[in-house]
Amino acid sequence: MRTTLESGAWIEHIPIQDIKGKHIRDYARAGKGQVNPDAVDEDGQVDAKVLVTSMDMGEAQEEKHDALWAIVITGWSYDFPVLKFDRGSGETAGAEVLDEIPGDDYQEIDLLLQPFAKKLTAKPRPKGVTTSASNGSSKGA
User: What does the radius of gyration of the chain's CA atoms come to, in whole angstroms?
Assistant: First the structure.
């Protein structure tokens, strides 16, 4: 599917209704923080202070953002390659090109992709909810 931006540039992306399990699984792999090796001692004990201070939530969010673009966008009119998501490592290659996208286009693309991020992280809603007061059978059974 092609979307033309206000500037005249365009992006090609998967239609939101075509999101598949692979896209959801890929997005879940992205932005996983790495544990600082100094946070775990020789006995396997975790130093919570080192663990927390070494976490970079901003970097994790940026990795998630870049992965979204790589997973959803399949082509564009810019003179540089589209980002690629590596399913094995959970990392996005080529994200540095985002620095070159004009600011207005960047913001417009971000807005366009927000529903994709929601769909990729949505939790399934069960059709019938069983409460603790119910045994899961209907009254007519």
Answer: 20
Please enumerate in sequence order all residues whose Cβ is within 8 A of that of 25, keeping only pairs 6 or more positions apart, or say none: none
- Structure-block tokens of residue 108: 């417009």
Q: Write the pLDDT tens digit of every residue in 42-95.
A: 777 666 665 555 554 556 788 999 999 999 999 999 999 999 999 988 899 999
Q: What is the dihedral of CA 114, 119, 122, 128, to 10 degrees?
A: 140
C-alpha distances in Å from residue 118, one per residue of 16, 97, 123: 11, 24, 10
- pTM reported for the whole predicted model: 0.71
Cα angle, residue 58 at apex, residues 82 and 104 outer, rounded to 5°? 50
Residues in a beta bridge with 76: 11
Structure tokens at 33: 């923080």
Whole-Å CA distances, 33 to 60, 73, 141? 6, 24, 49
